[in-house]
């Protein structure tokens, strides 16, 4: 019984924890997938915001600068000054304009005015600006003069990388291009504008040769406007991107990189295009996602803690609960076994009465015979001794009957060596009168000396229960009433079969006959505990088990059919100390 409980307990615990672990893995993976999806969604969203901000601010800058320069051209008569090549007049107008850009928070680094032949009439450069070439070559100026409309884009020829906006100056009387005005803007303006909308970002510019642009911090702006370019911040950002530049794949719009103990998404989407839509470089933006990522992983850690706590709690509940379950089942088993014996007392008394009836009759006749012989004066010594000896034999028989039934009710507390053949013979002797009264023949083929370890009277009790159960099935049976007992051995495993000719057990009950309170007796005389007690006894034996089946067997050439109860246990090898 304990083995069964232990097996069921282990199976329940195993299945419970497998289901718990499976559910945890499923929900954890689902939650992890969702949070990683959220992470990718926000990364894509942030990249889209960066790209949209860059494009919209660039378009706004173009519109703002073109309108401002056009207004100056119209209001100050710049067309006539260019036609007259009046350099002093242009200087008088555009020197204040150059410094006015700073007040508008636009870091202009150059202001150039040319005629229609691109001869320089006015040029104002940032004092910190280093020219790459002596001559002026600007694609936006060429495009503005040629196409007669504003042109803009990044330039890298004469100056370091800068953003150029060129506005044509049209002569309204002749409808010809008199010249053009080019405004060069420090790319630091793009860093400034992105930081205006986004926090926790780092920015840098990569030029076409995949090297970081180190010159975008130049500016001679007044101190009150120097925050636009913020040279210290620019240097820190450049050092940051220098450490990861080799890890950045320009073909990808978004990258997820770990730098130190921080996590960043790197956006390479903002392209720095020339007027001819050629790539002059890229604006790299690193957005710090550490806090967001830690929050996402924090939920996963909560899941792990929850699972560990739940597993420990279930383990504790299982340990305490099943320990209590074992005690309850064990106590219940003892109560059932005790009740089985109590229920058997009434039936046992009827068997004892049946067995005592004949010896008591013989005893009564013996006493009457002694009294009669004494009255007739024929009672002599030999006659008396003969009658006393007959009475003693009957008294010994009655005593033996009582001892046999009393020993059957004794429960052992320690395991000891028990003999199969001896136990079976004792059991048959106990129930023999009851079987004979029902004209049941017992074909006992169990011989030899087969021993095992068990509690005292276990095999006797088991055999009695099976024989009485078979008697009830055979009592009303027409034809041959036979119970056949036999054994077979395979290695050290012994199988004992109790076969009767009672017609078998209904198939629907075949697997349930060893359950408590299950009975097939129609007269409600059965307790349903006989075979249940047999299973308990079998499980107390070494490697013991019991099962039931219906099958045919042969006795003296006659084929019979009935229930077969099989008992299996491990025999005790000879010479093994107990």
From TrEMBL:
Keyword annotations from UniProtKB, A to Z: ATP-binding, Kinase, Membrane, Nucleotide-binding, Phosphoprotein, Transferase, Transmembrane, Transmembrane helix, Two-component regulatory system
UniProt-listed SMART domains: HATPase_c
Lineage: superkingdom: Bacteria
E.C. number: 2.7.13.3
Catalyzed reactions: ATP + protein L-histidine = ADP + protein N-phospho-L-histidine
Domain Histidine kinase: 351-573
Pfam family, one: HATPase_c
CDD domains for the chain: HisKA
UniProt-listed SUPFAM superfamilies: ATPase domain of HSP90 chaperone/DNA topoisomerase II/histidine kinase, Homodimeric domain of signal transducing histidine kinase
InterPro entries: HATPase_C_sf, HATPase_dom, His_kinase_dom, HisK_dim/P_dom, HisK_dim/P_sf, Sig_transdc_His_kin-like_C
Molecular functions per Gene Ontology: kinase activity
PANTHER family given in the database record: PEROXIDE STRESS-ACTIVATED HISTIDINE KINASE MAK3, SENSOR HISTIDINE KINASE
Descriptive protein name: histidine kinase
Organism: Geobacter anodireducens
